[in-house]
Amino acid sequence: MKSAPLSALSLFLASALAASGAGTAFGPVRAQPGESVRMTSVSESKDGTLEVVQDGRTRKGPIRIYRERDLSWTFRAPATDGTLRGMVSISKIATFSSFTLDGKEEKSEDGSPLCGKMFAMSKAPAGDWKFELDGSIPLRRVEKEIDELTIYLKRQWYPDRVVNVGDSWEFDPAWIRMIVEKDLHKAQTIGTMKLRQIRRTARKQVAVIDISVRSTGGDFRADGSEARAQVELSGQVVVDLSTMLDESLELNGTIVTSSGTLNDSKKVTLPVHLKVNKSFVKGFSNP
Q1: Cα angle for residues 244, 84, 190 (degrees, 5° grid)
Q2: Which residue has the higher pLDDT, 6 or 43?
Q3: Is the model's pTM score more than 0.70?
């Protein structure tokens, strides 16, 4: 007699638990060696406002920031000592921005040197995630991108307990904060999640989770200036309960950052729309 495939068994068990009224236990993504996940994300801030105060004069104008990411990673079998392993392929990491002051528009485009690269990642049982770059890119130039990947792999969004519809919990939204605004690394951030519902179809079951992120922080400098940031985001994440892959994340909100002194300062107010999609894909090749 043939045994049922693992994915089918997982789906059956999840269905049985849901039918019995039991809660939901979240966990890491269930993937086999050789399987690949593609993640795309777009963070768009349009209709923002830039306010600059200089020598007692205040100037205001529109600002827009657009960040895009497209990457894949493949799961490999753990090493004999338990070291987790994988491969990362970067198709795109880019930021586009524009603002207008005094009728003059300025545009900029920043593409990561990691674009088009593929490299290995690993984590020893008692260590942190490490990335094996080929040496062709100065580490300092891609430090923020590497930090972003590390924080993503370290993230722990779900509690180590069974949760029921209506339950809520806190989580660390460091990765969300980082991909929305690179300059918020010193801000104090609080994230909350709430299991809204379990949706069932003929193919699968998904968990719909409400999510909110609140972040605020300040940094006083030796020259008397100050930098401050405030973030408010809310939306939802959808998790496939058979694979534990968070297939979609969508957030909307506002980011306000300011820096300088009373007479010489800059303030940026940005409406934000963040959308992240993930899916299992076949094969794995260079971008």
Answers
A1: 55
A2: 43
A3: yes
